[in-house]
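Blinded run. Sample ID left blank on purpose so nobody reads anything into the name before looking at the predicted structure. Input follows.
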Amino acid sequence: MQATIISPAVFDYLALAQALSIPPKEVATLEQQVRNEFPHDDMLMELHLLRAVKAYANKNHLSVTP
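Blinded prediction complete.
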């Protein structure tokens, strides 16, 4: 699977994913999963991606380091 990361318009989940050092491939996987759930609603997709990034970070014990 190729990582095709979109540019968020409302909820900047990418900035959080980068701050948490989540690999782009993992972000792309989350994007695909959430896009399948919300194919026509970008804002709802971004909101759920933000939540998914937070859940991924929590599950993997990741935190933002200064």
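Unblinding after everyone has recorded impressions. Residues 13-59 form one domain.
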